[in-house]
Amino acid sequence: MKELAEFVKERRKEVDLTQEEFADRAGVALTVIRKIEQNKTNLNLGKVNQVLKMFGHKLVPMSLKELDDNEAS
């Protein structure tokens, strides 16, 4: 299974967008795209899903606690 960072970076390059252009189209800050592509662990699930929505995908929480934490964010 591909890591999130690799998936996003490959798809972004396939559509020939810079990180900045992609962030703008996804409606997120440039730092969100950079964090995802650098495989950072402190990501907001809502923001990640905004990015993945561009490719028809989404992540789901692994537990109810994660779901509660993300709704509070």
UniProtKB/TrEMBL annotation:
Domain of life of the organism encoding this protein: Bacteria
**Matches recorded under Pfam families:** HTH_3
InterPro entries, per this entry?
Answer: Cro/C1-type_HTH, Lambda_DNA-bd_dom_sf
List residues of the HTH cro/C1-type domain: 8-67
Q: Which protein is depicted?
A: Helix-turn-helix transcriptional regulator
Whose protein is this, by species? Olleya marilimosa
